[in-house]
Design goal:
Length: 254
């Protein structure tokens, strides 16, 4: 009961302060305040595009066992309003915390991600055919959202709308936007759409950096982020249990 009250209180405070904070961050942005960025204003965009073949290869190996990928809302419950089992995830880093076993399976991807200053979150975002994410928006202008498209259907039914303008992903070319603007996503095709989705600190003046760091730090310490880490650990523990049981059964047959 006390935890529920704390969460509601935290949510109310967050909603009250985020608009004025985002106003300051908008003014202090060193890359302007567009809805969708020219990706190459960020030095890391070229780095990621150059590593696209290696990252795509590792993502393909992960996708070979799709049933091991958790629906995003089961890791991050605050996505439950917009997501269902059609949107799955393979987390490499969540709010600055690496998922060690997953990172070990993607060494070339991690070698690139470790060169990106200010990387907070990175995961393979897998949208099954028929996925629709209704219009929604993120919380803080202290970060930008970056997609490295890896497997994208060549079909206009796979698209993202940011503030009324429709965009399509192009494999190997970065797509970077400010998710505090309303956006909506569809995969109205018969193929999966897979991107490496990242949240990265926005370049800001000193005042903005300090304010953004404080706000994101409060989010990172919130029950929502702690829940996500527990959920990821629980999912991995269950996979480990299943693997161990399968190994035992195989050994018994020998």
């Amino acid at each position: 009961m006390a935890d529920s009250w704390f969460r509601r209180t935290l949510m109310r405070i967050g909603k009250r302060v985020r608009k004025p904070i985002n106003g300051v961050l908008s003014k202090d942005s060193l890359v302007g305040d567009p809805e969708v960025f020219d990706p190459h204003v960020f030095p890391w965009a070229k780095l990621l595009e150059g590593a696209y073949p290696a990252i795509k290869k590792e993502a393909g190996e992960i996708l070979a066992a799709r049933d091991r990928l958790p629906p995003l809302y089961k890791i991050s419950p605050d996505h439950k309003r917009i997501a269902d089992d059609h949107w799955r995830s393979f987390f490499l880093r969540g709010y600055g915390v690496p998922v060690e076993k997953n990172c070990a399976r993607c060494p070339e991807t991690m070698a690139v991600l470790e060169q990106i200053p200010g990387l907070m979150t990175a995961f393979f975002s897998v949208m099954a055919p028929g996925t629709h994410l209704p219009r929604h928006k993120g919380v803080s202008k202290a970060i930008v959202t970056a997609h490295l498209p890896l497997f994208v259907p060549d079909d206009p039914g796979c698209r993202i709308d940011v503030m009324g303008k429709v965009y399509r992903w192009e494999e190997g070319r970065m797509f970077v936007f400010d998710d505090t603007f309303k956006h909506e996503v569809w995969n109205d095709t018969d193929q999966e759409r897979v991107v490496l989705l990242m949240h990265i600190h926005r370049p800001l003046k000193l005042r903005g950096r300090l304010l953004g760091k404080t706000f994101l730090g409060a989010i990172q310490m919130s029950p929502y982020i702690k829940d996500a880490k527990r959920n990821q650990d629980a999912w991995q523990a269950e996979l480990d249990r299943i693997d161990a049981e399968q190994e035992r059964l195989s050994a018994d047959r020998l």
